[in-house]
């Protein structure tokens, strides 16, 4: 058993898989969590680095799922958390099913906030610990045809910055916001966006690069990192561009059918 322990959520694929790989490589025992059975296969891959690996299938859009995750730690001190679990949803908001967009809100907002409210107090009490939250530059952009997802990431980006201020006296605790742009993962297929320009864009970021940016920022104690120079430019532009213009720009990327334009 290693002397340090990490939790990585949304770890079956994509950014979370790469973060779990980095944690295991860095000598952490890890508990990896996702809402699909694939997490057990992913866990076998992480074991190659010689640390203890536990896997758990749990629905982190529910309080019960987060409680299940916390119980799986068996009371062990949590040294690091990558709160990466997230869900997207494309198409027009008026055409979306309530259950689907509610799942996005519950995963990205409720699940993330509840997890942090449970893992941060012990860290603050001992003044030691690291937390990486996967936000997004989407939080800066009104997401036409991805409205609920972008809205939840706006919450995450703002929420993390607020909590950083609240716990600023615990200078041994690092809370970092990782903000990527579009990443080449299963996200767009799962969000029903493979008929869009952004969903079919072959130039999306590599999840391994995004994870490395987040990991390095976390280890360096940074408050936030925008992954990728193009995304840094886009986030800077978003701060000085009217919302109506940003929404129209997003529409051109995310509106169904734009993949054929």
Give the quaternary arrangement of the chains.
Answer: single chain
- The total count of helices amounts to 10
Number of DSSP strand runs: 7
Largest sheet: 7 strands, parallel
Please state roughly what percent of the residues sit in beta strands, choosing from under 5%, 5-15%, 15-25%, 25-35%, 35-45% or over 45%: 5-15%
Q: What spatial order of strands do you see in the largest sheet?
A: 3-2-1-4-5-6-7
Query: Could you tell me how far the N terminus lies from the C terminus, measured between alpha carbons in angstroms?
Result: 54 Å
The gist of it:
By secondary structure, this protein is of the alpha/beta class. 47% of the residues lie in helices and 14% in strands. The longest helix has 29 residues, at 98-126.
Provide keyphrases for this structure.
alpha/beta; 47% helix; seven-stranded parallel β-sheet; globular; 261 residues; 7 strands
Describe, in plain words, how this protein is organized in 3D.
By secondary structure, this protein is α/β, with parallel strands linked by helices. The chain is 47% helix and 14% strand. The protein has ten helices and seven strands. Strands 3-2-1-4-5-6-7 form a seven-stranded parallel β-sheet, with helices on both faces. β4, α4 and β5 (129-134) form a beta-alpha-beta unit.
Topology:
Blueprint: E1 5-9, H1 14-25, E2 29-34, H2 38-46, E3 53-57, H3 63-71, E4 80-83, H4 98-126, E5 129-134, H5 147-166, E6 173-179, H6 187-190, H7 197-200, H8 207-219, E7 224-226, H9 229-238, H10 243-254
Parallel strand pairs: 1-2, 1-4, 2-3, 4-5, 5-6, 6-7
Helix pairs in contact: 1-8, 4-5
């Amino acid at each position: 058993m290693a002397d340090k322990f990490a939790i990585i959520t949304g770890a079956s694929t994509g950014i979370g898989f790469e973060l779990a790989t980095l944690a295991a490589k860095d000598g952490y025992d890890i508990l990896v969590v996702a809402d699909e059975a694939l997490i057990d296969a992913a866990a076998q891959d992480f074991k190659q680095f010689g640390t203890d690996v536990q896997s758990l299938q749990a629905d982190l859009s529910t309080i019960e799922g987060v409680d299940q995750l916390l119980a799986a730690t068996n009371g062990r001190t949590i040294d690091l958390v990558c709160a990466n679990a997230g869900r997207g949803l494309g198409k027009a908001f008026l055409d979306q099913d309530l259950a689907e967009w509610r799942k996005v809100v519950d995963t990205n907002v409720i699940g993330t906030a509840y997890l942090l409210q449970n893992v941060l107090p012990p860290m603050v009490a001992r003044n030691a610990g690291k937390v990486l939250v996967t936000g997004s530059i989407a939080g800066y952009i009104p997401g036409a045809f991805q409205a609920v997802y972008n809205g939840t990431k706006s919450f995450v980006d703002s929420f993390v910055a607020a909590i950083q201020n609240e716990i600023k006296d615990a200078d041994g605790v690092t809370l970092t916001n990782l903000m990527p742009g579009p990443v080449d993962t299963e996200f767009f297929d799962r969000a029903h966006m493979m008929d869009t320009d952004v969903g079919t864009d072959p130039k999306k970021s590599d999840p391994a690069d995004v994870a490395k940016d987040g990991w390095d920022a976390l280890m360096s104690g940074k408050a936030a990192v925008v992954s990728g120079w193009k995304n840094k430019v886009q986030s800077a532009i978003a701060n000085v561009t009217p919302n109506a213009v940003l929404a129209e720009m997003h529409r051109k990327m995310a509106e169904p059918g734009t993949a054929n334009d």
